[in-house]
Design goal:
The chain is an alpha+beta fold and 270 residues long. The protein folds into 2 domains: 75 residues, Winged helix-like DNA-binding domain superfamily/Winged helix DNA-binding domain (Arc Repressor Mutant, subunit A), CATH 1.10.10; 179 residues, GAF domain (Beta-Lactamase). It is built from 9 helices and 8 strands. Strands 5-4-3-8-7-6 form a 6-stranded antiparallel sheet, with helices on both faces. α2 crosses α3, α5 runs antiparallel to α9 and α6 packs across α8. The radius of gyration is 20 Å and the shape is globular.
Length: 270
């Protein structure tokens, strides 16, 4: 659960963090009154925090609507954090290659609690006579740095499948799994069965489980200990021609994961 969804104490730092998380999930921004009401804090306290975050560049305020949005300072911090992920430099050539070979978008994700953080992404190429199916996806599902539910995405299911049992149960501690589409797995028991299958076969799929009109396949990236710090996924419209050749697609995504593992000095563990 994000800070914005938890009970907020009197600590100004906790309130500021909760406020930033809330705005990150609010396209178009929010006004002071909306923020103070959702965080259940006095308007005066909310205004004090907003003013200081704006002054430092973490927020911007629209003069016409009085809505606060995330500022460029937060973007700079996010990119600084992503630079510290050492495998991104060797992963990008692989992402471009596999996106070109399949016509699908390619991405890398890591697990943050029970959410998947997209840390790198290459959009699907435009093939002659054919518009990339990924071009129709909402912008908030294409951005690097977005967080996605683990249980409804191929990336997330792969990352969950390779956790230790204790870590997995912690991630699935919330009693209800959010239903994103009619195909989303919402039963913990059913999800655990699915994760066991994923670990046995070495890849995961998500067929319109997170978003309608979106199908994905994902494979694990291993480190030298055999743990899975990241995963690679391919995704696009279920109508994309490449889905007619599932065996070939499985070979491509698992080979791409193995290449990243080796190039980043993460020996691939079959």
């Amino acid at each position: 659960m994000s800070l914005a969804g938890a009970v907020i104490g009197t600590n100004s730092l906790e309130r500021a963090l909760a406020l930033l998380e809330m705005l990150e999930e609010s396209p178009g921004g929010l006004r002071n009154a909306e923020i103070s009401r959702q965080l259940e804090i006095p308007k005066s306290s909310c205004s004090w925090i907003l003013t200081r975050l704006e002054r430092k560049g973490y927020l911007t305020r629209d003069g016409n609507t009085s809505r606060y949005k995330l500022g460029l300072k937060t973007v700079a911090l996010a990119h600084g954090a992503l630079r510290e992920l050492g495998f991104r430099s060797c992963a990008e050539p692989v992402l471009y290659r596999v996106a070109s070979e399949t016509g699908l978008a390619a991405g890398i994700g890591v697990l943050e609690g029970n959410r998947v953080l997209v840390v790198d992404r290459v959009e699907a190429p435009l093939f002659p006579r054919t518009q990339s199916p990924d071009r129709t996806r909402p912008r908030d599902q294409r951005e690097i740095g977005r967080e996605l539910p683990a249980h409804s995405t191929a990336l997330g299911k792969v990352l969950l499948a390779y956790l230790s049992r204790g870590a997995l149960l912690t991630c699935l501690a919330e009693p209800v799994l959010t239903q994103r589409t009619p195909k989303t797995i919402v039963s913990r028991a059913d999800l655990l069965i699915e994760l066991r299958k994923i670990r046995r076969r070495g890849y995961a799929t998500a067929d319109e489980e997170h978003s309608r009109g979106l199908r994905a396949i994902s494979a694990p990236i291993f480190d030298f200990t055999g743990a899975v710090p990241a995963a690679i996924s391919l995704n696009g419209s279920p109508s994309a021609p490449v889905w007619r050749f599932p065996r070939r697609l499985i070979e491509l995504v698992t080979a791409a994961a193995g290449d990243i593992s080796r190039d980043a000095r993460f020996p691939f563990v079959a």
